[in-house]
UniProtKB/TrEMBL annotation:
Pathway: Glycan metabolism. This is O-fucosyltransferase family protein. The gene is LOC101496810. The lineage of its organism: Eukaryota, Viridiplantae, Streptophyta, Embryophyta, Tracheophyta. It is found in: Membrane. It comes from Cicer arietinum. Residues 1-25 form the signal peptide. Belongs to the glycosyltransferase GT106 family. One of its GO terms (cellular component) is membrane. PANTHER family: O-FUCOSYLTRANSFERASE 2-RELATED (PTHR31933), O-FUCOSYLTRANSFERASE FAMILY PROTEIN (PTHR31933:SF20). GO terms for molecular function: glycosyltransferase activity.
């Protein structure tokens, strides 16, 4: 076994043991140390609140037309070049949304190089241990069909290049591997450094490939192509879309019975055409896992035991390389650098006008602190649902243990919700802000600095808190923002992906 393979294997074993160890300690911690509300004064008022009809109506009102719409590309139908320069392989790491952006960039690079793209290889995530492939997550035939006039795509390499595998590149330095692609490289960089490899060998493998194409000074046709991939070509596999539609229908048309759903319930719901009385729902991406909590170096009210556990976790994972730990909790909060807890997100939603009749879908991985941490959020929003409460055991079995498919289901439901809110910025937040901007859908972006400062004030009355929250989020509910230099085209799709109506 080579040193590189040994290191990779050791890393996987380490993360597996670490995950098991911390999962066990986290569950024990939750049982032995009940998590108390940090903002009891506000919480009592929020539970007793009565939201005025006018405020409730306003919060659910869809966005008005903002003067932008997806560009009509039908007039400029692309044509495939007669000859491909060779095959491009990319190896994508990260979670689902980082991989999604990488796929879009890979198509753009293939177009720049006039190369044939091999369906991207998704690396095994060492934390989530998910081995799902591109074809497990995305509808590959749809992907190829939508892009058939833009670039040539193959599902597998022809026999003569079958040697070009992940294992082949792990064993030694190879002339066909491009390892030094800089972050946000220009189109010219690919023409100067990758095209010669293609012309010499007929194939080039780029690894790693994440954030490897600049967002600025790119030809407009390439920008449009990236948009086309993200918003048209990348759709999830049929069974994820079908399950997503079923859960959306259940959110909009709650069933009166709590009896166990049968395996054919999915078909019964999705075949229903009665949407006249469909209700509205909001998706909350509650990004509060142990990694987020530890990396932020903030205090979340779990006492000395929690502080010690997070400090140890931080030391093991990042060996002290967490700059936030140099600041006090008050400094971090006032700067908006602390993730909001479920309790704090619940207070934000309550202040904005969502009442206890709100149907709330929780899109999230495991929450640090478990059910104890979510209890205050559920107290404010008793109609809160998630994958476990909405889907039958039969349906859940189809995606159990597949982090990418679970994330895909959450993404699909989030795109189709009336309102989306993410508790903290991140890849999913960025991807959905962009996707929902493209569709002109309401998306609440929490003002993290404001919320941090409000929560530091322990004497604030509910009316004052409510007024500050509403005022501080008037222009953070999906209003279109034009992309600035260096910003991501996938988060800010205008003006690159959208045209003025």
């Amino acid at each position: 076994m080579t040193m590189e393979l040994y290191c990779r294997a050791a890393t996987l074993v380490f993360f597996t043991l670490l995950s098991f160890s911390y999962a066990s300690s986290s569950s024990m911690y939750s049982e032995l140390n009940p998590i108390k509300p940090r903002h009891s004064r506000l919480l009592r008022s929020a539970v007793q609140r009565e939201t005025p009809t006018s405020q409730l109506s306003e919060i659910w009102t869809p966005l008005e037309n903002q003067g932008w719409k997806p560009c009509d590309e039908s007039r400029n139908k692309p044509t495939l070049p007669e000859k491909s320069e060779g095959y491009i392989q990319v190896f994508l790491d990260g979670g689902l949304n980082q991989q999604r952006m990488g796929i879009c960039d890979a198509v753009a690079v293939a177009k720049i190089l006039n190369a044939t793209l091999v369906i991207p290889y998704l690396e095994l995530n060492p934390v989530w241990r998910d081995s799902s492939s591109f074809m497990d997550i995305f509808d590959v035939d749809h992907f190829i069909d939508v892009l058939k006039d833009d670039i040539s795509i193959v599902k597998e390499l022809p026999e003569e290049y079958s040697w070009s595998t992940r294992e082949y590149y792990a064993l030694a330095i190879r002339d066909t591997r491009i390892k030094a692609a800089p972050v946000h490289a220009s189109a010219n960089w690919y023409l100067e450094n990758v095209l010669p490899v293609l012309q010499s060998y007929g194939i080039a493998a780029i690894s790693p490939f994440s954030h490897r194409l600049t967002f600025d000074n790119v030809p407009m046709d390439i920008q449009h192509l990236r948009c086309k991939v993200n918003f048209q070509a990348l759709v999830f596999v049929p069974h994820i879309r079908t399950l997503g539609d079923a859960l959306i229908s259940r959110l909009r048309n709650p069933q009166p019975s709590n009896e166990e759903m049968s395996s054919n319930y999915l078909q019964e719901v999705t075949s229903s055409d009665d949407n006249k009385n469909a209700g509205k729902f909001v998706v909350l991406h509650l990004r509060f896992d142990k990694d987020m909590a530890a990396h932020s170096a903030c205090d979340f009210g779990g006492g000395k035991a929690e502080k010690l556990a997070l400090a140890k976790y931080r030391q093991v994972i990042w060996q002290g390389r967490v700059l936030n730990s140099q600041f006090t909790d008050e400094e971090l909060r006032s700067q908006g650098r602390c993730p909001m807890t479920p309790e704090e997100v619940g207070l934000l939603l309550a202040a904005m006008g969502f009442d206890n009749s709100t149907h709330l879908y929780l899109a999230s991985h495991k929450v640090y602190g478990g059910g104890a941490r979510i209890s205050t959020l559920r107290q404010l929003f008793p109609l809160m649902e998630d994958k476990k409460t909405l889907a039958s055991s039969f349906e859940r079995a189809q995606i159990k243990g597949k982090a990418s498919l679970l994330a895909a289901l959450d993404y699909y439901i989030s795109v189709h919700s009336d309102i989306f809110i993410s508790a903290s910025p991140g890849n999913m937040h960025n991807a959905l802000v962009g996707h929902r901007t493209y569709l002109n859908l309401k998306t609440i972006r929490p003002n993290m600095a404001l919320m941090g400062q409000l929560f530091l004030n322990k004497t604030m009355e509910w009316s004052e808190f409510e007024h500050a929250v509403v005022e501080g989020h008037e222009n953070r509910q999906g209003q279109l923002r034009l992309r600035k230099p260096k910003q991501s085209i996938y988060t800010y799709p205008a003006p690159d992906c959208m045209c003025q109506a």
